[in-house]
Prior knowledge:
Layout lengths: L2 H10 L4 E10 L2 E9 L3 E2 L2 E2 L4 H17 L8 E6 L9 H5 L5 E6 L3 E11 L2 E6 L2 E6 L3 E6 L4
Amino acid sequence: MSLQSDIESIIESVGLELYDASVVSENDETIYRISVISPEIEDGKKKGVSLDTCVELTHLISPLLDVTPPVSGEYRLEVGTAGIERKLTTLQHFKKSVGENVALVYGNKEKLRGLLEKVEGSQIFVKSDDDVVAIDFNDISKAKTYFEW
């Protein structure tokens, strides 16, 4: 098994999903950042992830990284929620965000805001003003979820 699939298994064991894993550099420090989301929808939006759950995941994932480090050299593990408003950069991100509001820039700088209804193959379906617009994933230059207060 790969490191990512091992991490996914640990995250799924506490009822969450891996959203993203990345290595970033901030203030001369290397950070292995793991972002998680809840697969559950509550009141029309993704259910939140508690700080206690993120701490629990840190304690569960850390021993795995001691055996199989994600990077060479020193790094800090950071486990947190992907957030209520987050970038959508992969097809998998879109699949995990079905049922949420999204804002897209696609094609020739066209903008679209609406409810992400479904993902079929590489087609993204967004309901906006009672119309459903299908956009090919490869035509999207920028995308994020957004929250209406």
